[in-house]
Amino acid sequence: MLYGIVAATTALLLAAVLAALLRAPALRLALLDRRQRQRRVPLSGGVAVVLATCLVVVAGDRTGFAPLGEGMGALLAAGAGVAALGLVADAWRLKTRFLLVGTAVAAACVVPYGDTGVPAGVAAAGWIACVTLAFRALDHADGVAGTVGVVTAFGVAACAAAEVMDGLAVLLSVLAAALTGFLMHNWPPARVALGGCGAMFTGFLLAAAAVTTRAGQDAVTGAGVLFALTAVAVADAALVVLTRRTAGRPLLRRGPDHLAHRLRRLGLTPAGVTVGVGTAAFAGVLVGTLVHTGVLGAGAVLWVAGGVVVVVLVLWRVRARVRVSHEVMPSHRPRTRRQPVGLVRPPRESVESAQSVEPAKSPLRASRRTESPQVSGSLRVRNG
How would you describe this protein's topology in the membrane (predicted)? Predict the structure, then answer.
């Protein structure tokens, strides 16, 4: 217990310090976030999270205070390899298919086939690879990927602790602490970004740890728990696929189609988007953890699935409705030069129509106009 507190505190401070120190080298090497064109955000946060997590966990294992246990060393090594692949993608635009294949190979090396079986293990490896890339896609706005990663890490750590997997619980707790230290620099407006290195490392560890905790249990309930733990990443990926398919655009081409982009169009602030997405992640993780521990039945996952479907459809339709309204009622109207009130001339048609209509005759008004010395002669004759 004491070591867990010390390890988490060390990882938090180390990640915060490393993220600040690595910012200048990332700027010199032009290792910048290409999403935001107005601000140069260096991708040093991911390297800081990976280094802080690996150093603290390896130190605890080597000193004997917190042994990782069987298979955890291979999991950490595979996560470091995926992080290196993400760092290469940050520096040189690797195609997504290469990232998917490399992540799938790393996932195939850590799946416990003895507990899952070969067919289910292959499916689990594919799921780990997809979730890893979904977490990489979550790093499209300030604070979103880090917040979702912290919440999910605590939830999966609770599931691991329920299965008496102390080494895995310590690993995930250290990861959550490192992400918290990174969020000190990534909270809107961000000074550093997670990048593919940190996002893929986080997604891989979380997905592989979730598969490990559910190995050997009911497959249907396990699939529901895995879905609930990663509901936000699944919702973001589903929204992107639905939007780009219906618009006829390539799936792998970047664009403002993610959850944070849609929420920003609805008027939320960057901090509000981060808090809202983090709250949604907390709700899904809470349901998944309670189902895993047996507090809730497996049917509770259906509420999470229904919420994901509603959110995806609503955000998808909101954009279409806004586009139609802009086409019908354009917001930018041509500006006309305003003239003084006395110099504005009415249209000729309105003048002729006004002259054709005979004004109402009022003896009192006529007498006043004829007796007034300020009335012109033409008006005096017409009214008389």
Answer: Multi-pass membrane protein
